[in-house]
Specification:
By secondary structure, this protein is an alpha/beta fold. It has six helices and eleven strands. The strands form two sheets. Strands 9-8-7-10-6-1-4-5-11 form a nine-stranded mixed beta sheet, with helices on both faces. The protein has a two-stranded antiparallel ribbon with strand order 2-3.
């Protein structure tokens, strides 16, 4: 069984800065980490490999420093890793990103399963996984918390707002994985040391035969107009009293004085 994991690096919360003139993120000054949801995706892929056999290949689209995340993925049980990196990919929205990833995965084919995190914490769109499945022509299941192979298919459990679903999906397929269904393993020291000497393949747009008008800004129908740091100008007020009824009455009076009720 050949499993491909899509892994993204995202800025560590608290290290993100915004350019006051361009209103865009200054990613160069941010510390990059593996997207938390993708850690769970990698863990699920490695567990499937351990129970069903096969290999786990990881692909990441990002800047050159994303190699560190791929080395960590090798330490966690990945067999092969690939970096999709090219200046022409800069500015890609989810549609352009899914196109570039699809071109890379087509080069890595054949495959049985693609595993993605449900969402990236820097964009919160949850679009790349389903878009990628559509481009590759395979079925997809989102918000998966459990998966096992079953006679050439995949049996999965997915979470909804008020229920869980158990589905059987034909392979090849794509799933996106939820957080907090288990605990991602730490990298093995032995595997990490071995990974330090690995030559990580870096593919640009030419290597995956990506069409220029479908990647980067040219291939992105959506545009981020502005990014800004929120400001908080309001002041809080603590309502005190001898009992709940008194405090509720005081709150109602304040709301009426301010025309809010």
């Amino acid at each position: 069984m050949k499993i491909i994991v899509c892994l993204k690096t995202v800025p560590l919360p608290g290290t993100v800065k915004v350019d006051p003139e361009t209103h865009r993120l200054i990613r160069e000054s941010s510390q990059l980490i593996i997207n938390p949801y993708d850690r769970f995706a990698l863990e699920m892929a490695v567990r499937l490999k351990e129970t069903s056999g096969g290999q786990v290949w990881v692909v990441s689209m990002g800047p050159p420093q994303a190699k560190e995340a791929l080395i960590e993925a090798l330490g966690c049980g990945a067999d092969e890793v690939f970096l999709l990196s090219d200046r022409s990919f800069a500015g890609s929205d989810t549609l352009a990103t899914s196109y570039a990833l699809a071109r890379a995965i087509e080069k890595m084919a054949p495959f049985d399963l693609i595993v993605c995190g449900k969402v990236a914490i820097d964009g919160e769109t949850a679009q790349v996984g389903p878009e990628l499945a559509q481009r590759l022509g395979v079925p997809s299941v989102t918000q998966v918390v459990a998966a096992s192979t079953e006679e050439g298919a995949l049996k999965v459990t997915r979470v909804l707002d008020h229920a869980r679903e158990e589905l059987r999906v034909a392979l090849p397929a794509l799933i996106t994985v939820e957080r907090d269904w288990g605990r991602p393993r730490l990298p093995s020291l032995k595997r990490l040391l071995a990974a330090q000497n690995r030559e990580i393949p870096v593919w640009g747009a030419a290597e995956v035969a990506a069409e220029p008008d479908k990647i980067g800004f040219s291939g992105s129908p959506t545009e981020v107009v502005e990014v800004f740091s929120p400001t908080y100008d309001g002041q809080g007020e603590i309502i005190q009293g001898d009992n709940v009824e008194e405090m509720v009455g005081r709150l109602v009076s304040i709301l009426r004085e301010r025309g809010l009720i």
